[in-house]
Design goal:
Blueprint (H helix, E strand, L loop, with lengths): L18 E8 L5 E11 L6 E11 L10 E6 L7 E8 L2
Parallel strand pairs: 3-5
Antiparallel strand pairs: 1-2, 1-4, 2-3, 4-5
C-alpha cells in the first residue's frame, strides 16, 4: 500500500483512521507537533474556491520531526485531551 496515494481516504480495518498531509508549524512541545493542513472549499453561492487551514496537535514519540517538515498524519485513539493524531512518515 502506497501511503501517499491514500491521503484523505479511510484505511482498512487494520489501520483505521484518516490520513492527512501537512507542514509542521511548531515542534516546541515534548513528543508533540503542531501540523498545519490546508484544504480547499467551494463557496455555496459564488462557487469560488477558497483555502481553509486547520492545526492539529500530533503525537511524535521520538521527537524526530522539525519545523517546516512535510508529514503525513493518521487519526488514532485519543492520546491526550487534544491529541488524536500521530505521524506516519515524512514526505520528500
Amino acid at each position: 500500500m502506497d501511503i501517499k496515494k491514500e491521503v484523505g481516504k479511510q484505511l482498512n480495518s487494520v489501520n483505521k483512521g484518516r490520513l492527512l498531509k501537512g507542514v509542521v508549524s511548531s515542534d516546541k512541545m515534548d513528543k508533540t507537533l503542531v501540523v498545519l493542513t490546508d484544504r480547499y472549499k467551494k463557496h455555496f453561492k459564488y462557487k469560488k474556491r477558497y483555502k481553509v487551514s486547520k492545526k492539529y496537535k500530533v503525537h511524535d514519540e521520538k521527537n524526530e520531526y522539525k519545523k517546516g517538515d512535510k508529514v503525513i498524519i493518521q487519526e488514532c485513539r485519543p492520546i491526550s485531551k487534544e491529541k488524536q493524531w500521530k505521524v506516519v512518515n515524512k514526505v520528500d
